[in-house]
Write a structure and sequence with these properties.
By secondary structure, the chain is mainly beta. The protein has one domain: 7 Propeller (Methylamine Dehydrogenase, Chain H), CATH 2.130.10.10. It is 8% helix and 46% strand. The strands form 3 sheets. It has a 4-stranded antiparallel beta sheet with strand order 1-2-3-4, with no helix packed on it. Strands 5-6-7-8 form a 4-stranded antiparallel beta sheet, with no helix packed on it.
Length: 171
């Protein structure tokens, strides 16, 4: 047996974020792989039919994920870096039975987590700046829980302007 070489590692695929569809028939997951030419990682969303075990690559931009299932399981919503604009994230929707992804919202933060709620709202987490002069209570809560400030925001799918729902001081 040969020792593992760097070239071997570049062929690895890393699977993460497995989520079962609301109807229980499918699972979606993110596959990351190295892109040595760009010195980066490519990230796409894949599906597996849990009955037949057939897998399908749903996105192919290399810049997609995290994601959340739509309420009825017919579509996925996902954050993508297909477009890059400083300090913003882009929310896309794609049908799981095929078709092109469409941008449905622009988030005014670099989001890094996403969920779907009934009624078409999508809470997401993002690192946010602290107030210029936080009060002592905020500083105490922030320093105890997290080294960076996080907020939990939500955006309705029909609009591209998120509203601040709850701010957590997890620094």
């Amino acid at each position: 047996m040969q020792p593992v070489q760097v070239a071997d590692i570049l062929t690895y695929r890393f699977l993460s974020a497995v989520e079962i569809s609301p109807d229980g028939r499918r699972a979606a997951f993110v596959v990351k792989r190295a892109d040595p030419e760009k010195n980066a990682y490519r990230s796409d969303i894949h599906l597996v039919d849990l009955g037949s075990r057939a897998t399908t690559q749903l996105t192919c931009s290399g810049k997609d994920g995290p994601f959340a299932w739509g309420a009825d399981g017919s579509e996925l919503f996902f954050l993508s870096k297909r477009e890059e604009e400083e300090g913003k994230s882009f929310l896309y929707r794609i049908r799981v039975d095929g078709g092109e992804a469409e941008r449905v919202a622009i988030l005014p933060h670099k989001a890094d987590g996403l969920r779907c709620l009934d009624g078409g709202r999508f809470p997401y987490t993002a690192r946010i700046a602290l107030p210029a002069e936080p009060d002592a209570t905020s500083i105490d809560r922030i320093s105890r829980f997290c080294p960076r400030p996080y907020g939990v925001m939500s955006v309705p799918v029909a609009t591209s302007v998120p509203s601040l729902r709850k701010r957590t001081s997890s620094s």
